[in-house]
Amino acid sequence: MIKLDPHSKEFKELQQRNLNYIRNLRKRATRAEIIFRKFLIKNHIYHKFQKGLLKPFHRIVDFYIPYIGYIIEIDGSIHDRLVEKDNFKDYLFLRERGLKTIRITNTEILDGTFEQREDVQLLLLISPTQSRRESRKNKKTPQGEV
After folding, report:
1. CA–CA dist 113, 72 (Å, integer)
2. Which of 21, 6, 43 is nearest to 72 (CA)?
3. How far apart (Å, rounded) are the C-alpha atoms in residues 99 and 35?
4. What domains appear along the chain, each with residue ranges and CATH number?
5. What is the pLDDT of residues 84-96, one digit of tens each?
């Protein structure tokens, strides 16, 4: 693995390319991602859309809910062939960062059944109205509780 100096020209170019890529992903959001984002907004769940995470490796996630450490991935049919790879990424992020991944299929979003899922119901129960300011404040607790 190559480590780049965060002040180097190469790092800044890579960072800019990454930001452009994420902006493009946001502009080309799938119908399922748009529906789920509206669901989060309607329920006042603070989230980051198309968030780039760098450790333990670079990964762009569909939704990141920082105050509870959840990653939510909306999976299309291509993920049927990527189950082992997705499970491995999810495992590494749980082990290295303590981030739990919830995977929801496009079909579940489009037919509305995702709202009945136990993990989505739990998401609604866990501090659904927490603001961005509260999220930042909780990140700074000595125990690392969020």
Report:
1. 16
2. 43
3. 23
4. 29-139 (3.40.960.10)
5. 777 788 888 788 8
